[in-house]
Amino acid sequence: MKTKSTFDLPRIHSIFCAPLYQRTAALLFMAVFLFCPAAAQEAAPKTEIETKAPSSSLEEDVRHHESQALILSGENDTFEQYRVLIDLIDSVSRNYVHSISRKELIEAAIQGVTSKLDPYSYYIGNEEMKDFRREVHSNYGGVGMAIDSRGGKFIVVAPLAGMPAYTAGIHAGDELLEVAGEKVHEKKMDEVLQLLTGEIGTTVDVKVRRTGEKKPLDFTLRRELILMETVLGFDRSEDDSWNYWLDKQNGIAYIHVTEFRDGTGEELRKVLEMLQKPESEVENESETKNESTGSPQKENSRSESKNEDSQAERTDSGSPLNGLILDLRFNPGGSFQVSVAMADMFIEEGTLVSAKGKNTVEQIWRASPEVLIPQSVPVVILVNSYSASASEVFSACLQDHQRAVIAGERTFGKGVIQSVLPFEGGTTNLKLTTASYFSPNGRNIHKEEGMGENDEWGVKPDDEFLVQTSAEEDRMFLDDRSRRGTLKTHNDLPVTKNPADYRDTQLEKALEIVLKAQNIKESASQILKKRSAPYRKGGERTSTRRVWRR
């Protein structure tokens, strides 16, 4: 049964200020019942606690403590160690030249304790908890557009497809003039964002200036819960939906997972199901939905991705999907539960991942018999040194089960579980690493301090699939990926492209693996060169319908 103790700060304050024989009782109480439950499990110290009259100065206190010879000698001296800490806080509070509250000193001591832990364990104070609750539990929404400050102006970088700003007709490149009736010219970014956000269902008026328009444009936007897309394709179709086909003629799909959020697993499921439907079925569904709604909906836009290339359907099942590349590069992780659920879509039986800790029972997550992708479809997972946490759990699982080939670079090496432990009735919390993840074969994922390249950690591609990139190549890749995700409509920003000779060598390797697995005698570099031409200098235009205004 969990017990709960209350901490009456004013009462403890009076105890601290009382004679030492009264403080001693408080020390015993706090050490056994408040500071650490483990202390109650250890044998009580045999030394008697001495009492003395109140000291008149810090020097007398110091001399008295020296005479007691309190030494932090080991785990068996738990009570004495707590006593030193409490006496130290008391002495500083009463004698330090500047005023510092005991609460501040205690929080500083807590910060000192957590500084000895790993970087993922930390104390969340009262003020931080207020911000955390506001972010997680508040009923606030936005309008769904990314903005940036450029030359003293707030420019819309991208309205999110299907979100209020996009639906209302706001374009990338629009300059924000007013939000909620207030001019934004001299405001800070956080002030503008605060004006745009509010309770879900409420409205906000926005005034923008658009290149080519003589007068500013006014929009009334209804705030919604904004859910960022996390399952992206290679580029955009003409209706701004994602196109997941990298090489449609050969039935090879490309899915970029940005992070593992609550809705990511369901997004991936829908995309994988769509990719395995015959084109005739997809077209019929698209036409039916368009007739009933009058316009394509966000949830169904993925089903309408078109490509001018002919489609090669599998003769056995009718599925056009012959190969899949999952891109987890620069994926920082996210929800562990989501990564396990996604791995279960590919694995028929056995262990998906296990977790072990010092004071926790080993947990094992096992696969369910149903899979979403047939075993005959080759899968390649792209990772790099920025792929971490949940993305490593997912990759390690498919690698150990030999369900996917890992290509790219060795991952970051973050495979630990953090538990959030509440204190002071939940007004403060401790985020503490309590266990580590292990792959189905028992491989360690987490890189501990002091580990080197020859130690076991992270997810490492086989030598033949190791493709390392420079910092400059990483920058160009991120720029290229951003350009490929640019909206075809609702966009008045100028075209920018990568150099004509830019190559994504890691993606080339992944495509080469899939082509080889399917005995397709084509060049991966040539396929990618043609597919990426619209986003290279000297290539064809990204969209013949796009009109760029400067």
Please outline what is shown here:
With 550 residues, this protein is an alpha+beta fold.
Any chance you could write out the topology, listing elements then pairs?
Elements (H helix, E strand, L loop, with lengths): L8 H9 L2 H16 L1 H5 L16 H11 L9 H18 L6 H13 L7 E3 L1 H12 L2 E2 L3 E6 L2 E7 L4 H5 L6 E5 L2 E2 L5 H8 L1 E2 L3 E7 L7 E6 L8 E2 L2 E2 L5 E2 L1 E3 L4 E6 L6 H12 L3 H15 L29 E5 L8 H9 L6 E6 L6 E4 L12 E5 L6 H11 L4 E4 L7 E8 L4 E11 L32 H14 L20 H13 L6 H9 L18
Parallel strand pairs: 14-15, 15-18, 18-19
Antiparallel strand pairs: 1-21, 2-7, 3-4, 4-5, 5-6, 5-8, 8-9, 10-14, 11-12, 13-14, 16-17, 16-21, 20-21
Overall helicity: 25-40%
Radius of gyration: 30 Å
| Termini gap | 68 Å
Compute the number of strand runs: 21
- Mean pLDDT equals 79
Structural class: alpha+beta
Shape: globular
Low-pLDDT stretches are 1-73, 292-316, 539-550
Could you characterize what this model shows?
The chain is α+β, with helices and mostly antiparallel strands. Helices cover 33% and strands 18% of the residues. It has 16 helices and 21 strands. The chain has helices at residues 9-17, 20-35, 37-41, 58-68, 78-95, 102-114, 126-137, 164-168, 189-196, 264-275, 279-293, 336-344, 390-400, 471-484, 505-517, 524-532, and strands at residues 122-124, 140-141, 145-150, 153-159, 175-179, 182-183, 198-199, 203-209, 217-222, 231-232, 235-236, 242-243, 245-247, 252-257, 323-327, 351-356, 363-366, 379-383, 405-408, 416-423, 428-438. Strands 3, 4, 5, 6, 8 and 9 form a six-stranded antiparallel beta sheet that branches. Strands 10, 13, 14, 15, 18 and 19 form a six-stranded mixed beta sheet that branches. The protein is globular and about 80 Å long. The N and C termini lie far apart (68 Å). Mean pLDDT is 79; it is low at 1-73, 292-316 and 539-550.
